[in-house]
Amino acid sequence: MLRENTELREFIRKTALLNAVQHGGKAQAGPIVGKLLGERQELRSQAKELNLLINEVLAEVNKLPSEEQKRIVAENWPQTVEKKKVEEEKHLPPLPNADKYKQIVTRFSPNPDCVLHLGSARAILLSHEYARIYKGKFILRFEDTDPKVKRPSLEFYDSIRGDLAWLGCKVDEEYIQSDRIPIYYEYAERLIRDDNAYVCTCVPEEFRKLTLLSQPCPCRNLPAAEHLERWKRMLDGGYAEGSAVVRVKTDLNHPNPAVRDWPALRIIDNKKYPHPRVGSKYRVWPLYNMAAGLDDHLLGITHIIRGKEHLTNGVRQEFMYKHLGWEYPQAIHYGRLKITGAFLSKSKIVAGIRAGEFMGFDDPRLATFAALRRRGITPEAIKKMIVDVGPRPIDATLSWENLYSYNRKLLDPTVNRAFFVSEPVQLKVQGIPKTFTAQLPLHPEKPEKGTRQHIVMPSGAEKEAVFWIAKKDAVTMETGKVVRLMELFNVNIEQASLQITDGPDPVTASIEAAFASESYEDVRKIKAQLIHWIPVGDECPCQVVMPDASVVEGVAESLCKELKPSTVIQFERFGFVRIDSVGDKIVAYYAHK
Fold it and tell me: Which residue, 111, 286, 459, 549, has most beta carbons within 10 Å?
């Protein structure tokens, strides 16, 4: 009797206590039943007696005061408490000098020259999370002031907005720098008038030589009036592209030559390179440090959260801030985050799509948010990973498996299960003594979700039924071995010879087997192979697009035809997938194991 099984009773007690601690002192029966049957399938045939035992232990546990439950758990299974503490301790550190400001304001500033990808996640999510933690403001600012080299494209403004919405990052204010050109002109003229900037017409190579020697170029010390005339000429078309640039005066003896008199505005041929939003309206365009530096002050940014590759840019901008009498915002520079195997070059992504190498921005081989979304990677998983890494200044390396682990923890407790048989092969089973009704749980730990049902009715004199099984299972079968069809019955393999050739033609050969027994306990001791299956006639065609863009053909349970696009499901023994389309054939994209 189950009641006399002390090992089983103790397992139920432990599970109930852990569940009670998680739910305010009241353990819930559903998760306990699901966990038990998931790990001990042989108990399914004793479900009635098992429920009585669970309810008995549950009543004992729920009578205990909450503090006593916690004490027992901490005393007997301290590792579970420690694990929970570690998870709770992972949060973002406080922002520096946050108490100086009435309102915390952060920003994310993409160039709309491509879709966003995983490499942008840290800047987006850290900036947004800090704005929310401090009940502040999160600004989206499009930095689109290079119509020549990093040319923006209209389609990417909307795709970036969409990606932020998908990530759950609500934008409080939006600005587009190509709308703000007159503002940059106003401050450029002010800097020139105050002798803090100048128009340089030197040949770039000559300027570079002088700068390396910490010497001024011939333009630097000309009167401000002369530079104002030059500035007017830049605006009016008196200089050709590349022949004049506005430079901000810094320290010519600065130890980093890249800081010395950095370029702030340059001329771009507006007929040859019109801007996709404002056309040929402007010919003088601000460079990054001019536009970003000015906007960070004018838009009230209190904390700039960016990669440490911007450290030098911060030093450059501080000179401009000093000229204008401004205080520089707090800057948090995080280390480089390398994601092994992730394709993160925007220029290569765009080039690959134009060349037909990739199917689109949501090609599963890419690390774009569009591709991750199509594969069933959740924004919550990305956020959790980024928050756990945080804004630390040290470099970090993650792998795809790190992201998959976060995603798996979110999906596994919630998504339904189904069978998908890849590269299907027929299994013919004879001698089936009766009609079997297989009740397969939609979720092993959530009985309240219900079941999916398959009725296996033997036919003919041989009392035969035919199933689809995966080719990878078929090729491992040996004559005389026992195999269990999950949640159904056990079969003895009588004919395992299967001629399988590589190629596009489907396998028509089959495995022959005989009914052996029904009980899982019969095969558990011999560790028989457990395989998934679908009755022939109860399937629908299905293809799964893998992360390398290869396609796995197969069949899924017919109930999958009722799934809606964007549903994430676990194909048991295969992996998590996102349903992309449902028609004559289901198309799914593979997420991970």
Answer: 286
- Contact yes or no for 571/577 (Cβ under 8 A): yes
CA separation (Å) from 545 to 220, 362, 552?
Answer: 60, 12, 6
Our measurement of the distance from residue 50's CA atom to the centroid of its chain's CA atoms, rounded to an integer in Å, reads 40
Instruction: Give Cβ neighbours of residue 316 (< 8 Å, ≥ 6 apart).
Output: 248, 250, 258, 259, 262, 289, 293
Q: What is the DSSP letter of 235?
A: H
Q: Which residues 6+ apart lie within 8 Å of 381 measured at CB? A: 403, 406, 407, 409, 410
List all residues 6 or more positions away from 365 whose beta carbon is below 8 Å from its beta carbon. 343, 358, 371, 547, 548, 549
- Grade residue 228 by pLDDT with cuts at 50, 70 and 90: very high
What is the C-alpha separation between 312 and 331, in angstroms, rounded? Answer: 12
List, for residues 132-181, the tens digit of each pLDDT value: 999 999 999 999 999 999 999 999 999 999 999 999 999 999 999 999 99
- Alpha-carbon Rg for the chain in angstroms: 33
Q: Are 287 and 211 in contact (CB under 8 A)?
A: no
What sign for the dihedral angle of Cα 204, 205, 208, 213? negative
Tokens of 72: 């027992």
Q: What's the rounded mean pLDDT across residues 65-78?
A: 82
Note whether 426 and 467 are within 8 A (CB): yes
Helix (H) or strand (E) holding 110: none
Q: Tell me the per-residue pLDDT of 76-106, one tens digit each, with 9 for 90 and over.
A: 887 676 555 444 546 899 999 999 999 999 9
* 578-585 CB contacts, 8 Å cutoff, 24+ apart: 578/374, 578/375, 578/376, 580/374, 580/545, 584/541, 585/540, 585/541, 585/542, 585/543
The amino acid that residue 378 corresponds to is T
Residue 581, classed as helix, strand or coil, is strand
Distance between CA atoms of 90 and 83, rounded to whole angstroms? 11
H or E element in which residue 323 lies: helix 311-324
* Number of Cβ within a 10 Å radius of residue 366: 27
* Burial label, 574 (beta-carbon count in 10 A; 0-12, 13-18, 19+): buried
Task: Say which DSSP state 275 is in.
Answer: B
- Tokens of residue 315, six digits: 């030093």
Type and span of the H or E element at 350: helix 346-354
DSSP states of 17-68: HHHHHHTTT---HHHHHHHHHHH-GGGGGGHHHHHHHHHHHHHHHHHS-HHH
Tell me the DSSP string of 137-167.
EEEEEE----SSSS---HHHHHHHHHHHHHT
Does the global pTM surpass 0.70?
yes
